[in-house]
Design goal:
Helix 1 packs antiparallel against helix 2 and helix 3 packs antiparallel against helix 4. The protein is an all-alpha fold.
Length: about 160
């Protein structure tokens, strides 16, 4: 069992490194999105795909190791890390607990940076939609005021007039 726990800790360390890499790349992506550098963004997305592939391999190894540990402990193969922590002795108990805690923190940090990147992308896409609608003359609910202060609705605002 000691060998399986050591293997699990090693896999968790590998996953930790990959998540740290994702956080670093995500921070780079934020800068690239702010600068609107499409070529750099493309390179970052390729790096993310590579890390995601490595993460998938590490996750498969983790699941196999956890299933083997569960068999050894006579438990369900879908055992959670906290259940393993409850069943093992020191020093593995504290090592697994610290790795689990650190991974949760790192995943939370990655999620936050990814949400910021997502918001930046949505903002850029919103601006692009606005510009396309401005050029194409798509109907917008725009209120304008005429003589005497009366409002007129659905005035199309176009940069390029179709009559030209």
């Amino acid at each position: 069992m000691d060998n399986l726990i050591d293997k699990l800790i090693s896999i968790l360390e590998e996953i930790e490194t990959l998540v740290r890499d994702l956080i670093k790349i995500s921070n780079e992506k934020m800068d690239v999105l702010v600068k609107s550098d499409v070529e750099a963004l493309s390179a970052i997305v390729e790096k993310e795909h590579s890390i995601k592939h490595k993460m998938d391999i590490a996750e498969k190894k983790r699941r196999e190791t956890v299933a083997n540990l569960a068999d050894f402990l006579n438990m369900d193969s879908e055992i959670a890390i906290h259940e393993i922590i409850d069943k093992v002795q020191e020093p593995w108990k504290s090592k697994l607990y610290e790795k689990s805690k650190l991974l949760k923190k790192l995943v939370h940090e990655y999620k936050e940076t990814s949400e910021i990147c997502s918001d930046l992308i949505k903002s850029h896409l919103g601006f692009i939609d606005y510009m396309i609608n401005s050029f194409s003359g798509a109907e917008e609910n725009v209120t304008s005021y005429g003589i005497g202060g009366y409002s007129k609705q659905n005035v199309a605002q176009k940069i390029i007039d179709n009559k030209v």
